[in-house]
Amino acid sequence: MFDERPPAATETLLEVNNIEVIYNHVILVLKGVSLHVPKGGITALLGGNGAGKTTTLKAISNLLQSERGEVTKGSILYRGERVQDLDPATLVRRGVIQVMEGRHCFEHLTVEENLLTGAYTRTDGRAAIMDDLEMVYTYFPRLRERRKSQAGYTSGGEQQMVAMGRALMSRPEMILLDEPSMGLAPQLVEQIFEIVRAVNEGEGVTFLLAEQNTNVALRYAHTGYILESGRVVMEGSAQELRENPDVKEFYLGMSDKGRKSFRDVRSYRRRKRWLA
Ligand SMILES: Nc1ncnc2c1ncn2[C@@H]1O[C@H](COP(=O)(O)OP(=O)(O)O)[C@@H](O)[C@H]1O
Ligand SMILES: [Mg+2]
């Protein structure tokens, strides 16, 4: 008669269940990765170089084939449906698009032409596409200024914006963003993440973003996962991760000796406990 159940927990948009990825039939890179990406949130996939972040994103967007990689175990569900046998273009039509690491632009096209290529899967007509071009320019005023410039002659930050803007032109529900901060000056990194937040809040786009820059990612994300050698070693809300002593020590305050393995710390603590 009277429904007193608490409001439903946030809907999971993407679910990765215990996937294994093998390259060239022999190199095992992901050793059982599971993720839950809530609808409407920003989820960070963290970890050092070679941890398996890009491989995870490519497994989701079905871009592994061209790399001779294969999901050999586990499942990937988008809105509850299995998507791992779809081709990338079908997935784009379903609302999932990846912005690749290294922001690949069409160098000989102008900024605006690059953005328009992002609308290639759409069938809703020119007027709607032009409206969205306006929408992209509101989030990226810099791109409006540079609209007639050849993409190859724009800066790294501008190219990252072009790559993100082009993804937005497909009207995605979810963007897989790979290392947006790579090679950019700190101030620009901040700008890019501000735009991610604005698009997330303004358009309701869900983000799964891979980052080595733990510090900045955890300031903008809502939840996060830390990958090491193809395994999730930690997960939680961004706040929990920011406050976790091991994350602080090994991912937020990097020592000059470089980054130690998170798993090393844990086994070290375990030994210490036994000795005590
Ligand atoms: N095409 C490939 N063939 C073989 N091994 C690969 C390939 N791509 C990546 N790897 C290996 O997989 C591991 C994870 O790489 P990657 O997913 O790119 O990590 P991250 O994005 O976290 O830096 C690394 O050891 C890398 O050398
Ligand atoms: Mg990578």
From TrEMBL:
Entry protein name: Amino acid/amide ABC transporter ATP-binding protein 2 (HAAT family)
Native organism: Cereibacter azotoformans
Coiled-coil blocks: none
Pfam families: ABC_tran
GO molecular function terms noted in the UniProt entry: ATP binding; ATP hydrolysis activity; branched-chain amino acid transmembrane transporter activity
Transmembrane feature ranges: none
ABC transporter domain sequence ranges: 14-254
Similarity remark: Belongs to the ABC transporter superfamily.
GO BP term (any one): L-amino acid transport
Keywords: Amino-acid transport, ATP-binding, Nucleotide-binding, Transport
